[in-house]
Amino acid sequence: MSTDRFAEVNGLRICYRETGPAGAPALFLVVGLGMQLVEWPAAMVERLSRRFRVICMDNRDTGLSARTGQSYDRLPEGFRWISRHSVAAPYHIPDMARDLLGLADHLGIGRFAVAGFSMGGMIAQATAILAPGRVTALASLSSCAGEPVVAGTAENDEMIERFFLPAPSRAALLEAYCESSAFYSGGSAPADAPQTRAGAEALIARMEAGGGDQGGYLRQAFAITDTPAWEAELRQLDVPALVLHGTEDPCLPVACGQRAAELVPGAELRLHDGLGHWISEGIADDLCSWLETLPATAPVPA
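The structure corresponding to this sequence follows.
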Protein backbone atom coordinates (compact mmCIF):
# COMPACT_ATOMS: atom_id res chain seq x y z
CA MET A 1 0.00 0.00 0.00
CA SER A 2 1.17 3.53 -0.70
CA THR A 3 2.45 6.04 1.83
CA ASP A 4 0.29 8.15 4.11
CA ARG A 5 -0.97 11.43 2.71
CA PHE A 6 -3.00 14.18 4.34
CA ALA A 7 -5.76 16.57 3.36
CA GLU A 8 -7.54 19.35 5.22
CA VAL A 9 -11.20 18.37 5.11
CA ASN A 10 -13.99 20.11 7.01
CA GLY A 11 -11.42 21.72 9.26
CA LEU A 12 -9.76 18.39 10.07
CA ARG A 13 -6.59 16.69 8.92
CA ILE A 14 -7.61 13.43 7.27
CA CYS A 15 -5.05 10.74 6.49
CA TYR A 16 -5.45 8.64 3.37
CA ARG A 17 -3.56 6.37 1.01
CA GLU A 18 -4.24 5.74 -2.65
CA THR A 19 -3.15 3.08 -5.09
CA GLY A 20 -3.99 2.22 -8.67
CA PRO A 21 -4.02 4.22 -11.91
CA ALA A 22 -4.88 7.90 -11.46
CA GLY A 23 -7.25 7.76 -14.44
CA ALA A 24 -9.14 4.65 -13.29
CA PRO A 25 -12.62 4.72 -11.72
CA ALA A 26 -12.34 5.75 -8.08
CA LEU A 27 -13.18 3.50 -5.13
CA PHE A 28 -13.26 4.57 -1.48
CA LEU A 29 -12.78 1.95 1.25
CA VAL A 30 -14.11 2.97 4.67
CA VAL A 31 -13.15 1.22 7.91
CA GLY A 32 -15.24 0.63 11.02
CA LEU A 33 -15.31 1.71 14.66
CA GLY A 34 -11.81 2.41 15.94
CA MET A 35 -10.22 0.81 12.89
CA GLN A 36 -7.40 2.16 10.72
CA LEU A 37 -6.96 2.24 6.96
CA VAL A 38 -4.16 -0.36 7.15
CA GLU A 39 -6.68 -2.97 8.32
CA TRP A 40 -8.01 -3.61 4.83
CA PRO A 41 -6.42 -6.88 3.60
CA ALA A 42 -3.37 -5.95 1.54
CA ALA A 43 -4.07 -8.60 -1.11
CA MET A 44 -7.59 -7.24 -1.58
CA VAL A 45 -6.37 -3.67 -2.02
CA GLU A 46 -3.71 -4.83 -4.47
CA ARG A 47 -6.28 -6.71 -6.54
CA LEU A 48 -8.70 -3.79 -6.61
CA SER A 49 -5.88 -1.42 -7.57
CA ARG A 50 -5.50 -3.19 -10.91
CA ARG A 51 -8.87 -1.80 -11.99
CA PHE A 52 -9.61 1.10 -9.63
CA ARG A 53 -8.03 4.17 -8.13
CA VAL A 54 -8.38 2.94 -4.55
CA ILE A 55 -8.53 5.45 -1.70
CA CYS A 56 -8.36 4.17 1.89
CA MET A 57 -8.86 6.71 4.67
CA ASP A 58 -8.57 6.96 8.42
CA ASN A 59 -11.87 8.30 9.71
CA ARG A 60 -11.71 11.30 12.01
CA ASP A 61 -10.62 10.32 15.52
CA THR A 62 -8.52 7.31 14.54
CA GLY A 63 -5.22 6.33 12.94
CA LEU A 64 -3.28 9.36 11.73
CA SER A 65 -6.35 11.54 11.17
CA ALA A 66 -7.14 14.41 13.51
CA ARG A 67 -8.57 13.86 16.98
CA THR A 68 -11.59 16.01 17.75
CA GLY A 69 -11.37 16.06 21.54
CA GLN A 70 -9.63 14.77 24.63
CA SER A 71 -9.55 11.45 26.49
CA TYR A 72 -12.31 10.44 28.90
CA ASP A 73 -11.61 9.18 32.40
CA ARG A 74 -15.16 7.84 32.80
CA LEU A 75 -18.20 7.24 30.64
CA PRO A 76 -20.51 10.27 30.38
CA GLU A 77 -23.63 10.16 32.53
CA GLY A 78 -26.48 8.55 30.62
CA PHE A 79 -24.39 6.87 27.92
CA ARG A 80 -25.46 3.35 26.90
CA TRP A 81 -23.80 1.43 24.08
CA ILE A 82 -26.65 -0.76 22.88
CA SER A 83 -29.56 1.67 23.13
CA ARG A 84 -30.47 5.27 22.53
CA HIS A 85 -29.29 7.59 25.29
CA SER A 86 -29.15 11.20 26.45
CA VAL A 87 -25.53 11.97 25.54
CA ALA A 88 -25.31 14.28 22.53
CA ALA A 89 -22.59 13.21 20.09
CA PRO A 90 -20.06 15.84 18.94
CA TYR A 91 -20.62 14.55 15.39
CA HIS A 92 -22.69 11.93 13.58
CA ILE A 93 -22.37 9.34 10.82
CA PRO A 94 -23.37 11.84 8.07
CA ASP A 95 -20.55 14.14 9.23
CA MET A 96 -18.09 11.33 8.65
CA ALA A 97 -19.64 10.79 5.22
CA ARG A 98 -19.04 14.48 4.53
CA ASP A 99 -15.37 13.90 5.38
CA LEU A 100 -15.29 11.32 2.61
CA LEU A 101 -17.02 13.68 0.19
CA GLY A 102 -14.60 16.45 1.15
CA LEU A 103 -11.65 14.17 0.50
CA ALA A 104 -13.11 13.28 -2.90
CA ASP A 105 -13.36 17.01 -3.66
CA HIS A 106 -9.76 17.50 -2.52
CA LEU A 107 -8.64 14.75 -4.90
CA GLY A 108 -10.71 16.09 -7.78
CA ILE A 109 -12.94 13.00 -7.86
CA GLY A 110 -16.52 13.59 -8.93
CA ARG A 111 -18.01 10.09 -9.02
CA PHE A 112 -16.86 6.98 -7.22
CA ALA A 113 -17.79 3.62 -5.77
CA VAL A 114 -17.72 3.19 -2.00
CA ALA A 115 -17.40 0.13 0.22
CA GLY A 116 -17.44 0.12 3.99
CA PHE A 117 -17.06 -2.40 6.80
CA SER A 118 -19.19 -2.22 9.97
CA MET A 119 -19.41 1.49 10.91
CA GLY A 120 -17.72 2.10 7.56
CA GLY A 121 -20.76 0.51 5.91
CA MET A 122 -22.93 3.05 7.73
CA ILE A 123 -20.70 5.84 6.41
CA ALA A 124 -20.89 4.36 2.91
CA GLN A 125 -24.69 4.25 3.09
CA ALA A 126 -24.79 7.85 4.35
CA THR A 127 -22.51 8.92 1.51
CA ALA A 128 -24.86 7.40 -1.07
CA ILE A 129 -27.79 9.17 0.58
CA LEU A 130 -26.05 12.55 0.77
CA ALA A 131 -24.61 12.44 -2.76
CA PRO A 132 -26.65 10.00 -4.89
CA GLY A 133 -25.39 11.57 -8.10
CA ARG A 134 -21.77 10.87 -7.16
CA VAL A 135 -21.89 7.28 -5.88
CA THR A 136 -21.66 4.74 -8.71
CA ALA A 137 -21.78 1.62 -6.54
CA LEU A 138 -22.33 0.83 -2.85
CA ALA A 139 -21.02 -2.17 -0.90
CA SER A 140 -22.02 -2.62 2.73
CA LEU A 141 -19.98 -5.21 4.63
CA SER A 142 -21.08 -6.55 8.03
CA SER A 143 -23.03 -3.38 8.69
CA CYS A 144 -26.48 -2.16 9.67
CA ALA A 145 -29.74 -1.51 7.87
CA GLY A 146 -30.38 2.14 8.62
CA GLU A 147 -30.75 1.66 12.39
CA PRO A 148 -27.25 1.87 13.89
CA VAL A 149 -28.18 0.97 17.46
CA VAL A 150 -28.29 -2.84 17.39
CA ALA A 151 -27.60 -5.20 20.28
CA GLY A 152 -24.96 -7.81 19.59
CA THR A 153 -24.02 -10.64 21.91
CA ALA A 154 -23.05 -9.95 25.52
CA GLU A 155 -19.48 -10.99 24.70
CA ASN A 156 -19.40 -8.49 21.83
CA ASP A 157 -20.59 -5.65 24.02
CA GLU A 158 -17.93 -6.44 26.61
CA MET A 159 -15.26 -6.54 23.90
CA ILE A 160 -16.23 -3.14 22.50
CA GLU A 161 -16.50 -1.54 25.91
CA ARG A 162 -12.87 -2.45 26.67
CA PHE A 163 -11.83 0.28 24.23
CA PHE A 164 -14.08 3.08 25.53
CA LEU A 165 -11.63 4.28 28.19
CA PRO A 166 -7.80 4.29 28.30
CA ALA A 167 -6.25 0.88 28.97
CA PRO A 168 -4.36 0.59 32.29
CA SER A 169 -1.15 -0.24 30.40
CA ARG A 170 0.22 -0.77 26.92
CA ALA A 171 0.43 -4.49 27.65
CA ALA A 172 -3.27 -4.55 28.54
CA LEU A 173 -4.09 -2.69 25.33
CA LEU A 174 -2.08 -5.22 23.33
CA GLU A 175 -4.02 -8.07 24.91
CA ALA A 176 -7.31 -6.31 24.14
CA TYR A 177 -6.34 -5.94 20.48
CA CYS A 178 -5.29 -9.59 20.19
CA GLU A 179 -8.34 -10.94 21.99
CA SER A 180 -10.56 -8.74 19.82
CA SER A 181 -9.02 -10.21 16.65
CA ALA A 182 -9.54 -13.74 17.93
CA PHE A 183 -13.13 -13.04 18.93
CA TYR A 184 -14.31 -11.31 15.77
CA SER A 185 -12.46 -13.66 13.42
CA GLY A 186 -14.06 -16.66 15.07
CA GLY A 187 -10.63 -17.97 15.99
CA SER A 188 -9.02 -17.69 12.56
CA ALA A 189 -6.68 -15.06 14.02
CA PRO A 190 -5.72 -16.63 17.40
CA ALA A 191 -4.80 -14.16 20.11
CA ASP A 192 -1.45 -15.80 20.75
CA ALA A 193 -0.45 -16.21 17.10
CA PRO A 194 2.72 -14.27 16.18
CA GLN A 195 0.98 -12.70 13.17
CA THR A 196 -1.93 -11.49 15.34
CA ARG A 197 0.40 -10.00 17.95
CA ALA A 198 2.62 -8.34 15.34
CA GLY A 199 -0.44 -6.85 13.67
CA ALA A 200 -1.74 -5.53 16.98
CA GLU A 201 1.65 -4.02 17.81
CA ALA A 202 1.70 -2.24 14.45
CA LEU A 203 -1.82 -0.86 14.96
CA ILE A 204 -0.99 0.42 18.44
CA ALA A 205 2.23 2.04 17.20
CA ARG A 206 0.38 3.76 14.37
CA MET A 207 -2.30 5.03 16.76
CA GLU A 208 0.43 6.37 19.03
CA ALA A 209 2.00 8.13 16.06
CA GLY A 210 -1.35 9.80 15.49
CA GLY A 211 -1.49 11.02 19.09
CA GLY A 212 -3.06 8.01 20.78
CA ASP A 213 -6.77 7.34 21.13
CA GLN A 214 -7.60 10.60 23.00
CA GLY A 215 -11.22 9.49 23.36
CA GLY A 216 -11.64 8.95 19.63
CA TYR A 217 -13.05 5.42 19.93
CA LEU A 218 -15.74 6.58 22.34
CA ARG A 219 -16.63 9.63 20.22
CA GLN A 220 -17.10 7.35 17.21
CA ALA A 221 -19.33 5.18 19.41
CA PHE A 222 -21.33 8.31 20.30
CA ALA A 223 -21.71 9.02 16.58
CA ILE A 224 -23.16 5.56 16.01
CA THR A 225 -25.57 5.60 18.94
CA ASP A 226 -26.76 9.20 18.48
CA THR A 227 -27.34 9.25 14.70
CA PRO A 228 -31.05 9.10 13.78
CA ALA A 229 -32.11 6.06 11.78
CA TRP A 230 -32.03 6.33 7.97
CA GLU A 231 -34.11 3.35 6.84
CA ALA A 232 -36.48 5.48 4.76
CA GLU A 233 -33.58 7.04 2.87
CA LEU A 234 -32.19 3.62 1.97
CA ARG A 235 -35.45 2.82 0.17
CA GLN A 236 -34.87 5.80 -2.13
CA LEU A 237 -31.41 4.77 -3.35
CA ASP A 238 -30.90 4.00 -7.02
CA VAL A 239 -27.41 2.54 -7.22
CA PRO A 240 -25.88 -0.91 -7.74
CA ALA A 241 -25.53 -2.32 -4.23
CA LEU A 242 -23.96 -5.35 -2.58
CA VAL A 243 -24.52 -6.50 1.00
CA LEU A 244 -22.06 -8.99 2.53
CA HIS A 245 -22.58 -10.46 5.99
CA GLY A 246 -21.48 -13.37 8.15
CA THR A 247 -24.17 -15.66 9.52
CA GLU A 248 -22.49 -15.75 12.96
CA ASP A 249 -21.76 -12.04 13.31
CA PRO A 250 -21.71 -11.30 17.08
CA CYS A 251 -21.61 -7.51 16.63
CA LEU A 252 -24.24 -6.74 14.00
CA PRO A 253 -26.43 -9.85 13.62
CA VAL A 254 -27.01 -11.33 10.17
CA ALA A 255 -30.56 -9.97 10.25
CA CYS A 256 -29.02 -6.51 9.79
CA GLY A 257 -27.52 -7.51 6.45
CA GLN A 258 -30.69 -9.24 5.37
CA ARG A 259 -32.72 -6.16 6.21
CA ALA A 260 -30.29 -3.85 4.39
CA ALA A 261 -30.66 -5.94 1.23
CA GLU A 262 -34.44 -5.68 1.56
CA LEU A 263 -34.38 -1.91 1.96
CA VAL A 264 -31.99 -0.94 -0.84
CA PRO A 265 -33.78 -1.49 -4.17
CA GLY A 266 -32.09 -4.20 -6.23
CA ALA A 267 -29.35 -4.90 -3.67
CA GLU A 268 -27.58 -8.24 -3.91
CA LEU A 269 -27.14 -10.18 -0.66
CA ARG A 270 -24.34 -12.68 -0.12
CA LEU A 271 -24.13 -14.46 3.21
CA HIS A 272 -21.02 -16.22 4.50
CA ASP A 273 -21.81 -19.27 6.60
CA GLY A 274 -20.11 -19.38 9.98
CA LEU A 275 -18.38 -16.03 9.58
CA GLY A 276 -18.22 -13.54 12.43
CA HIS A 277 -17.50 -9.80 12.20
CA TRP A 278 -14.44 -10.03 10.00
CA ILE A 279 -13.06 -9.18 6.55
CA SER A 280 -12.30 -12.77 5.59
CA GLU A 281 -10.70 -13.94 2.37
CA GLY A 282 -14.16 -14.94 1.19
CA ILE A 283 -15.63 -11.52 1.93
CA ALA A 284 -12.71 -9.83 0.17
CA ASP A 285 -13.05 -12.09 -2.87
CA ASP A 286 -16.81 -11.49 -3.10
CA LEU A 287 -16.30 -7.72 -2.91
CA CYS A 288 -13.59 -7.73 -5.58
CA SER A 289 -15.52 -10.03 -7.90
CA TRP A 290 -18.66 -7.92 -7.65
CA LEU A 291 -16.85 -4.65 -8.25
CA GLU A 292 -14.97 -6.14 -11.19
CA THR A 293 -18.22 -7.07 -12.92
CA LEU A 294 -19.65 -3.56 -12.79
CA PRO A 295 -19.63 -1.54 -16.01
CA ALA A 296 -16.46 0.53 -16.26
CA THR A 297 -17.16 4.11 -15.28
CA ALA A 298 -14.72 6.80 -16.30
CA PRO A 299 -13.81 9.23 -13.49
CA VAL A 300 -15.62 12.54 -13.61
CA PRO A 301 -13.76 15.64 -12.30
CA ALA A 302 -15.29 17.28 -9.24
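The beta strands are 5-9, 12-19, 26-30, 53-57, 112-117, 135-141, 241-246, 268-272.
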